[in-house]
Amino acid sequence: MPLLTCLSIPRGLLLALAVLAGGVRAETLVIAADIWCPVNCEPGSARPGIFVELAQEIFAEAGIDVHYRALNWARVLQEVRRGELNAAIGAGVEDAPDFLFTATPVALSRNCFFTRADSTWRFGGLASLAQQRLGVINDYSYGDELNGYIASHRRDSQRIQIAAGDKAMELNLAKLERARLDVVLENSWVMQAALARQGKRGTLREAGCRSPDMPIYLAFSPALPSSARYVELFEQGLRRYKANGRLQALLDAYGVGQP
What we know:
This protein is α/β, with parallel strands linked by helices and 259 residues long.
């Protein structure tokens, strides 16, 4: 039997053999956020989150693998800004105005105020917060008006308490339950999912929402030359998935709709 040489093997077969042998590495894009389910859920789970599944499907069409990590939000913003991660999941433009964003947002975030069920307070503008201990999360953006209020009172624990770390939302919920907070500000999707996961549906009441709703994105690193290409690929995919109904089907699978 004659010995096969590189010259006698078709180029396409050589490439296939190289891939099988691990000689060609798939392009990998790393995205991250703190767990904010259903936007992004537990890594490695059957349902890792709306944004995660969407990114995996869109980039797979271009032969790009998407790896998802769960990290605290402040760290995510730092590492994406430095180019150590490719993109932050669920960011608004106000979170990181220097990041690269698609023209089309993935979704709209509706931030609402939640209290214990026995409370009668309702949000009626910044003045209505004066006598409330409000729980928020470190480095989250809640819109210019609320961001300014939080910055002005962040050293006054009778007005603002800022949770940080990988379990920041859970910390705020525990403090609300124990009456160490009066109000928690959180995305309505995320709060509904958290209460359902903990078997606590109906234990909190929604006491009004911030207006207007805030567009949220997969926001790419300003430090990486590859980001411009990723933005374009993701924008094309978003438009395609919105037009053909695949994005709506994904939202339906998580039991949510656009605000």
